[in-house]
Amino acid sequence: MSRRSAIFAIVILPWVGPVVFAQAPARQFRLGILGASTPAATQHLDAAFIRYLRELGYREGDNLAFERRYAGGSQARLTALARELVAAKVDLIFAPVTPAARAAQDATKSIPIVFAVSADPLGVGLVDSLAHPGRNATGLSSVNVDLTGLRLGLLKQVAPKAGRLAILADPESSVDVLQIEQAQLAVQRIGGDLHVARAAKEADYEPAFRTMVSAGVGGLLVIPNPHNLTYRAVIIDLAARTRIPALYGVSEFVREGGLCSYSADYRDQYRRAAGYVDRILRGARPADLPVEQPTKFELVINMKTAKAFGLTIPQSLLLRADEVIQ
Predict the structure, then answer these.
(1) Whether residue 312 sits in one domain with residue 250
(2) Are residues 119 and 153 in the same domain?
(3) 88 phi/psi in degrees, rounded to 5
(4) Stretch 269-283: mean pLDDT, rounded?
(5) Exposure string (b/e) for 61-74, b if CB count within 10 Å is 16 or more?
(6) Is 308 helix (H, G, I), strand (E, B) or coil?
């Protein structure tokens, strides 16, 4: 079985989940949180992470102190903030997404790092292998690179008349480049061609959508990168104004008015990441903890938005959907 075809298989690893200990550690740990986006953009996910830490016995101000840093979508800011956390001598850095985890690993080779939704931790060099990370970082993959082709296939079902599809990405990001490559391969299989829309800051989005309209784009895949997550309200509004059907890599877009999404269940990923933090703070080595893949995926469809676009969602997709917003 190939690596890409195996992402939906259930692999039994030596450790299959966090263990709830009867008694939390007595000493206080300093936990760094390195967010690539903004606190508001990831509030619902951070809450899931902290809630499960509480279930494991950790209390802020008691046996846990947080050092929170958010880069607001800026890679340069991420680099500086990672160094700040290292200088603050935190015991562990929670860097949920690939850009944050890479910035943290560039800043330290000794402080443990836990990621929650890295698109391709092996492909971008965060770990030596998924089974044996071998370095100071481990956690969970979102398999976003692997999901690119499937997402485009779903988009084509939602917008079957689309001859040209687009992907909204930051070509300066190595993980986005991997997804662009997969999108190009997928479009060759399903027919049509691919337009790469570039966006790395808020001012880029309106010109990107104008270019897509001029290029005759009939369907858009929005990569779940920090920029797109930070400016999701802008993207949702522009998609509505230009009437370009979009499929998103994070379900929050759809709950806030986007058309549809397919992704790992990010709340579950953040919750499971808390288990890694617990294991490491109790003495486990990141190098020895296998990277886990998602066990829960969710297809979310907003029927109100579909009607506004004049789209008829296939019954087969509605039956598969985990959530249909009316």
Answers:
(1) yes
(2) no
(3) -75, -5
(4) 97
(5) eeebeebebbbbbb
(6) helix
The per-residue pLDDT for 23 is 64
pLDDT of amino acid 14: 38
Each residue's pLDDT tens digit, 153-166:
999 999 999 989 99
Domain count, the chain: 2
- Which residue, chain included where needed, has tokens 């263990």? 19
Find the CATH number of the domain harbouring 220.
3.40.50.2300
First CA to last CA across the chain, in angstroms?
A: 39
Residue 111 sits at φ, ψ, to 5 deg, of -70, 130
Same domain, 302 and 192: yes
Q: Name the residue range of residue 256's domain.
A: 145-263+298-325
**Per-residue DSSP letters for 138-195?**
EEEE--HHHHHHHHHHHHHHHSTT-SEEEEEE-TTSHHHHHHHHHHHHHHHHHSSEEE
- Asked if the model's pLDDT at residue 20 lies above 80, the reply is no
Cα–Cα distance measured from residue 229 to residue 258, given in angstroms and rounded to the nearest whole number:
12
Note whether 162 and 101 are same-domain residues.
no
Alpha-carbon distances of 38 from 74, 277, 298, rounded to whole Å:
10, 22, 24
The burial of 10, by beta-carbon neighbours within 10 Å (0-12 exposed, 13-18 middle, 19 or more buried), is given as exposed
Please choose, from the candidates 213, 150, 161, 212, the residue with its C-alpha nearest in 3D space to the C-alpha of residue 187. Answer: 150
User: Average pLDDT, stretch 213-229?
Assistant: 95
Q: Measuring CA to CA, which residue among 220, 206, 130, 119 is closest to residue 168?
A: 220
